[in-house]
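Instructor's aside before we start: the two examples that follow are unrelated to each other. I chose them only because their records fit on one page, so don't look for a connection. First example below.
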Amino acid sequence: MVPFDDRDGFIWMDGALRPWREANVHILTHAMHYASAVFEGARCYNGTVFKLSEHSQRLLDSAALLGFPLPWSRDEIDAAVNETVAANGLSNAYVRPIAWRGSEQMGVSAQLTKPHLAVAVWEWGAYFGEEALRKGLRLAIAKWRRPAPYTAPTKAKAAGLYMICTMSKHEAEAAGYNDALMFDWRGQVAEATGANIFFLKDGALHTPTPDCFLDGITRRTVIGLARKRGIEVIERAIWPEELESFEQAFLTGSAAEVTPLAEIGPWRFEVGQAVLGLGKDYSDLVNGRA
């Protein structure tokens, strides 16, 4: 893999495109020390970033939740993303806007820091690999839990909230799994380390209520696609002991798209037509075939 700091191309940063290797920040940037950063993950299909404005608005909302409102409007962020995609000559790409507090002040307080914004794009195929789309993923059970909404800004796509996700994914991969299922602070099923989760039982989809994790843009899209197919979607609290009763399962996310699951810990699932059909519906939609 080519390191991400040693690539050709352009990154949009604070209002202008810069050569990829020159898009840098100072070592004393507040975000590096205190996780004061928010980001987005989107995908570009055939030259169009799927639901770009929703991603840009969520970036703005996340920054506001962390207390550093951004001086760029949603339309300006949309334009920066499109400019970056075009400058890199990509029609199919992963898109990463990120906003952070700068290096004007060091310490827990960040009142004097300035907000910064950058956009990078790169080619990125199936997040879990093409084989996973056919055979399904294997998930371990994470020991870390998603925090309660009164302990962290869980409605923000904030960098600091992903620390336990990285730790959980590393532990799962070390044990031979693809990813990990995370419970929440109550012990209920929450999500994977970077994607929402759905389960199929008796023709209906069940998915955890997003009250302490992100209500993903892809999640909402797939719920709409399922209802268009006439599939009932039930958002509710799901407890681990219920997992043995579900027939199929899958993850959703801008990176993961729609990826089926084959197992979670001791529980097994069929990679069936319901999941594969929704995956095709999603692919058709984002590629302009629907």
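Example two begins here.
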Amino acid sequence: MKKIIYILCLVFSVSFLQAQENYTINGETLELKTEVEGKLDLLWNIIDGQYRYFVRTEDNTITELKNTKADRKFQEEYKTLLEELTNNYDSTKRLNLTLFSLKEFIDNYNSSVDTTYESSVSRSKFQFRLGVFGGMTNSPFVDNPDNKTTPLFGAELEVLEAKRISRHAVFMQLKHVLEQDDIKYSTTELSLGYRFRVINKERFSLYGNCKFATLNFSSSTIVREIDGEITTEDVNETAFDVPFIFGIGADINVSKNSFITLAYNELFAILIDNQGNFSTDFSIGYKFNL
């Protein structure tokens, strides 16, 4: 048992020593870890309780990434240096002086300039997008004799595969349909759905939606005539359905991480009946990558 513990300690010690090397930088001898190796290397360590980061170029020049403060304002020198070293490969606007942020930036740069480079960044398997929207609807699955439309608004969380262009997605949507004088009906709907992108480009995508589960909290006013007398009754209902409601939509890319969304929803459903009006459920919104 003692021999096993000794061997394990020896292995860990060797691994630790291999992971760190001594460097002399501007007359200062530092022990640094190599986090990323490629066209541009990232070195770092915690020295005297402070995180310090360095980049090493192909000619073995090592430069510290700094963010000094002057007149109560951070100078962000590290951003300027990385822009120069990467020939403005990507925006450094949201780049932070943290290990993960620097590692991801340098890793992406190395991948872009060297096809043989093997990424060392572990990324999430999923990508999340959050959106808000508003529009008009005639609530085609609700009794609406005069085919009136009412406003709607809501929010959506979309989950996609974490690759550059993903066709498949699931979403959770919260939608509220407002009551108007002409239509004494309103509902708040929480739904789960699936989305498939038929046209799937970086700048534009066209997709079909299917809501496979909905939970509605609805209120309505029912008007009845009994023996010549008009009566009204306020009805509040909570209903869970598996309706398989279909619609279509589109995302238009307006920046690296944001989209304008267009949707034409509630075209038809498999397990609930249309009440006689063809869908005029339209919305426009905005979504962004989290």
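Helices lie at 2-19, 77-85, 99-113.
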